[in-house]
Amino acid sequence: MPLKILVTAKRVEDPESKIRVKPDGTGIVTEGVNYKMNPFDEIAVEEALRLKEKHGGEVVVASIGTDKSQTEIRAALAMGADRGILVKHDGPLDPVVVSALLARVVADEKPDLVLLGKQSIDDDQNQVGQYLAERLGLPQGTFASKTESLESEAEQKKQPGLALSADGKAVAVVREVDGGVETLELRLPAVVTTDLRLNKPRFASLPGIMKAKKKEIREVAAASLGVDLAPRVVVRRLAEPPARKGGVKVADVAELWKKLHEEAKVL
Amino acid sequence: MKNVLIVAEHGSGTLRKATLHALAAGREIARRTGGTLHAALLGKGIGAIAQELASYGAEVRAADAPALEHLVAEGAAPVIAEIAKAVGAGYLGAAATAQGKDLLPRVAARLEAGMATDVLSFGGAGPDVTFRRPMWAGNVLAEVEITTAVKAFTVRATEFPAAAKEGAGAVVPAPVAVDPAALKTRFVEFREVKSERPDLTEARVVVAGGRGTKGDFKPVEALADELGAALGASRAAVDAGWVPNDWQVGQTGKVVAPDLYVAAGISGAIQHLAGMKGSKVIVAINKDPDAPIFQIADYGLVADLFKALPELQEKVKASR
Description:
The structure holds two protein chains of two kinds. Chain A is α/β, with parallel strands linked by helices. Chain A has one domain (3-263): Rossmann fold. Chain A contains seven helices and 14 strands. In chain A, helix 2 crosses helix 6 and helix 3 (95-109) crosses helix 4. The termini of chain A are far apart. Chain B folds into two domains: 3-182, 3-Layer(aba) Sandwich (Rossmann fold); 205-318, TPP-binding domain (Rossmann fold, 3-Layer(aba) Sandwich). Chain B has a seven-stranded parallel β-sheet, sandwiched between helices. Chain B has a five-stranded parallel β-sheet with strand order 15-14-16-17-18. In chain B, strands 8-9-10 form a three-stranded antiparallel β-sheet, with no helix packed on it. In chain B, strand 16 (260-264), helix 7 and strand 17 form a beta-alpha-beta unit. In chain B, helix 3 (73-86) crosses helix 4 (98-110) and helix 5 (218-227) runs parallel beside helix 8. Chains A and B meet through helix 3, helix 4, strand 7, strand 9 and strand 10 of A and helix 3, helix 4, strand 7, strand 9 and strand 10 of B. Strand 13 (233-239) of chain A pairs antiparallel with strand 10 (140-146) of chain B, so a sheet runs across the interface.
């Protein structure tokens, strides 16, 4: 039963980049910062590809942003996604707006499954998948995870963590929740957000990168989708957290214990 | 719309601790807006929990129905949204737990509310509440304003005190119009991961190990157990398959802020620091004197963790 999967690829600051706030608090310093696909979205792309490899179908990757986001769509295409959609928008966004734009894309593409990272590592809101599911009246499975070690044989065989039912009409999602692991079955179409430990995203191969150059990226202007683009969550000011005071080195465990016991009084 | 609704959580027949912190946050907003504090409780056979919840001074709306035995977002969101409307909530909050983060954005979408996740404190003046929250994994603190009529938020439990008991509120039954057969979500199972140790995000003390353990977490575990601490790990240790996924502390793992964080054999990659630098006291034990972790540690010890951890464990034991 072939699946049509829509997956997101947001352009974010590389998690290994040092993030600094502009002195006036209006944004972050972007000079010298590298950009890449949101790591949680990479996991979503990988999961979509594994499902396609197992069941057949099509993987469509969507991103919202300026022309620069073409890079992240191409990265997903190089991993193996089939085609891309860039919703062009320049300016601040929030999950209310992003989910409204994605809802338009979903209405147009009619995928069986929408896969998104559980959050993006820039604004860390962890909302878009849930808003999208509600807007579309679809079931949601957030924080899809895997309980077995990723070093396992199953990982090596690249089995998907999301299991499609025998009749192809539902998907089982294992979720990491407080105090345990929950399994939900969602009737398709459904929205699933991916957590860190669902899979290990593949690296794009050289032929994959070459092929990606020829794949289609359709552009849609965000303003043409009939969505109010004004963010409802407005960032007023950014600041760096208070720096930790320089610590001290202790000579041995005896001194460490004394410090913890008598000075910091935490033990 | 100045009233406040906090969505409560329960498990194994008791109120979750995190909810008390969310209630304190809700109380803070209600005091500023001059509104009333309400709490929504959903489940099956929740009478006793509702009474307990009411003892913290909130008016409780209890949605008690077999269909709500296992909460799924698709089924719970409409129930909570109706309660929010019934109490005239302008602020809708919950603890930033897995359940809170799953459920609240869906309710917010239903109420056309904007939302702030992982709120650390409130800003603004008087009834104009702004939300302070971390971005870029805590490397940046943002002050955000929500412009919608209803404002939704989850709070990081460690940043707010637990609510104190004060004058019991009323418990009002809430209507439940959920037809489980019409839901497209089916609860299959919940497997409890039993642990003698405290939850990583709620523990007072965390002992974490990294690459320096070379896969041998025994001294890390022994010290943690001596201290009654939770166990953590760096991404390197998790990726190597040495420890379970849910031990990972860092930007893409769990964000913790205990009173004491002991980092053993952890070099201190940006990714990891983002998840633990809110800790009150940080101890770093590492063989490499140049490890970046020493730059943020309050107390650094250049030593072999296989010698230092058992010694520290002895000190703790001897002090009892």
